[in-house]
């Protein structure tokens, strides 16, 4: 039954309905409670747990009828609410790869992948999370007292998910594809496997740690704001992150107030000679009253691209908090998260509370969270999918360390973003002394930006906000 509901959730997401992992798990529990004998009751239960927006109900109804009754057809005279099917060339990169892989395996008569292996390869977080939760019981979490016991539970979960067998299966698949002459697919499978070997166990460890923190929260302390202004984001404790929320709100309000104050002052006042001379006719040609040109109002327009890879996760949460506050102000702010893929999360911040929106942006967007950072690919996808987010009045803010794992830097894509935007600002949470070392190519990206700033603490972030307020007027 779990597989059926997870498949239905995947179909909803493919059709454009936002479904979080927690909602998917609620749907599984609801389906187990009501069963499948009474179809209308099951439909009502799934609609209650999965649908948040009224406009998604017709699409849900049609998908439910098709999914749980394949012979169903839309009524005559009504067009389907589902998007038209397309070839794999038009799918997002991950789906296109999985489609080509599946076609090659069928053509070569290779053994199909099991459900968990397929989900890991495709980056299906819902299926993987559901499988992990089967082996992570509340009783286990209650007994966890330190990080050593966490490591034991992580190993137990990986063993129960047959992690080693999955690795061996993917290695066999890559060899079989290579022997059959599918060199490109074989290399892609190897690259996905390398990513999984490095990042998936770390992801499981993070999930176990977060679960233990919820079961055994540390006693709260009240950090002093003065000391936190100079402390690096990467070294913040959960209590300090909580204490900093008010300060981040203050920064966002200060940006809004600074822009409004500068607009009231009018910036640099320029004399309108023609209107001044025309007004002087009333006073025998003597310009008794000076007329100034009206200052054109420039609303806050931002496009924020936030790297949410594990190396900058704490910094990303701060910036997403700032983005949330900015979206509540006047202006237009669109928010995106990326690692190697990119996805828009603006609706998360519009429709959910702060905590829920930040949590969803860092765990439930349509990206692979255990992939290696690939800024070039993210910039290319941004132009292809969200190019309308940038025009000559938009300030683009990129948040990331510029470590591209030796992939193609995608400079031409960043150049195109710069050509369309009013300005491009890059905030780097790394110490400036480490820029350009190892796989860091921030020095290449700096040539295409108006400002590249080190942003490791709140004091530096406040300085960037002051710069932004000046440039927005």
Q: What does this entry show, briefly?
A:
This protein has 473 residues and is an alpha/beta fold. Helix content is 56%, strand content 7%.
The biggest sheet amounts to: 6 strands, mixed
The coarse overall form would be globular
Gyration radius, to the nearest Å? 26 Å
Number of helical elements: 21
For this structure, what is the CATH class of the largest domain?
Answer: Alpha Beta
Q: Kindly report the CATH topology of the largest domain.
A: Rossmann fold
Mean of pLDDT:
77
Largest beta sheet: what is the strand line-up?
Answer: 3-2-1-4-5-6
**Total number of strands:** 6
Secondary-structure arrangement, i.e. CATH architecture of the largest domain: 3-Layer(aba) Sandwich
Structural class from helices and strands? Answer: alpha/beta
Roughly what fraction of the amino acids lie in strands?
5-15%
The CA-CA distance between the termini, in Å, is: 57 Å
The CATH superfamily of the largest domain bears the name: von Willebrand factor, type A domain
Total domains: 4
Low-confidence stretches: 70-92
Description:
- The chain has 473 residues and is α/β, with parallel strands linked by helices.
- It has 4 domains: 67 residues; 126 residues, no CATH class; 194 residues, Rossmann fold; 29 residues, no CATH class.
- It contains 21 helices and 6 strands.
Q: What order do the helices and strands come in, and which of them pair?
A:
Elements (H helix, E strand, L loop, with lengths): L1 H13 L6 H14 L4 H12 L6 H12 L24 H15 L7 H8 L2 H10 L3 H6 L3 H14 L2 H17 L3 H33 L9 H6 L7 H28 L7 H8 L20 E7 L5 H15 L4 E7 L3 E3 L1 H6 L2 H8 L13 H12 L8 E5 L11 H10 L2 E6 L13 H5 L4 E4 L3 H14 L2
Parallel strand pairs: 1-2, 1-4, 4-5, 5-6
Antiparallel strand pairs: 2-3
């Amino acid at each position: 039954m779990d597989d059926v509901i997870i498949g239905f959730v995947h179909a909803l997401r493919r059709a454009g309905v936002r479904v979080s992992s927690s909602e998917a798990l609620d749907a599984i529990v609801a389906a187990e409670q009501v069963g499948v004998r009474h179809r209308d009751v099951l439909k009502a239960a799934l609609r209650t747990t999965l649908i948040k927006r009224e406009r998604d109900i017709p699409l849900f109804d049609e998908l439910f009828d098709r999914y749980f009754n394949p012979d169903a057809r839309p009524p005559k005279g009504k067009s389907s609410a589902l998007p038209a099917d397309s070839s794999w060339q038009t799918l997002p990169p991950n789906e296109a790869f999985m489609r080509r892989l599946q076609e090659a395996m069928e053509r070569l008569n290779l053994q199909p992948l099991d459900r968990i292996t397929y989900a890991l390869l495709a980056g299906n977080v819902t299926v993987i999370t559901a499988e992990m939760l089967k082996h992570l019981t509340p009783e286990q979490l209650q007994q966890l007292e330190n990080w050593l016991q966490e490591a034991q539970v992580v190993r137990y979960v990986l063993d129960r998910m047959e992690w080693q067998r999955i690795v061996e299966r993917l290695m066999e698949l890559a060899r079989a594809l290579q022997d059959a002459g599918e060199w490109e697919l074989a290399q892609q499978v190897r690259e996905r496997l390398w990513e999984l070997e490095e990042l998936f166990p770390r992801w499981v460890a993070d999930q176990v740690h977060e679960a233990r923190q919820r079961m055994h929260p540390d006693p709260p302390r009240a950090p002093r704001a003065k000391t936190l202004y100079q402390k690096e984001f990467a070294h913040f404790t959960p209590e300090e992150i909580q204490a900093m929320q008010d300060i981040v709100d203050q920064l966002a309000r200060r940006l809004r107030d600074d822009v409004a104050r500068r607009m009231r002052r009018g910036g640099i006042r320029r004399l309108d000679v023609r209107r001044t001379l025309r007004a002087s006719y009333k006073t025998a040609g003597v310009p008794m009253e000076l007329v100034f040109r009206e200052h054109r109002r420039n609303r806050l327009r931002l496009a924020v691209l936030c790297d949410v890879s594990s190396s900058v996760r704490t910094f990303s949460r701060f910036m997403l908090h700032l983005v949330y506050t900015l979206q509540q102000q006047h202006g237009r702010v669109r928010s995106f998260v990326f690692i190697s893929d990119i996805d828009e999360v603006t609706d998360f911040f519009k429709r959910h509370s702060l905590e829920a929106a930040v949590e969803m942006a860092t765990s439930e967007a349509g990206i692979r969270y255990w992939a290696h950072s690939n800024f070039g690919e993210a910039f290319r996808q941004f132009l292809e999918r969200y190019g309308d987010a940038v025009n000559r009045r938009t300030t683009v803010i990129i948040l990331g360390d510029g470590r591209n794992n030796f992939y193609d830097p995608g400079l031409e894509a960043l150049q195109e973003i710069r050509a369309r935007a009013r300005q491009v600002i890059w905030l780097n949470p790394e110490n400036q002394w480490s820029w350009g070392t190892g796989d860091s190519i921030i020095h290449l990206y700096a040539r295409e930006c108006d400002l590249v700033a080190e942003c490791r603490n709140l004091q530096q972030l406040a300085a960037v906000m002051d710069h932004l307020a000046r440039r927005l007027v």
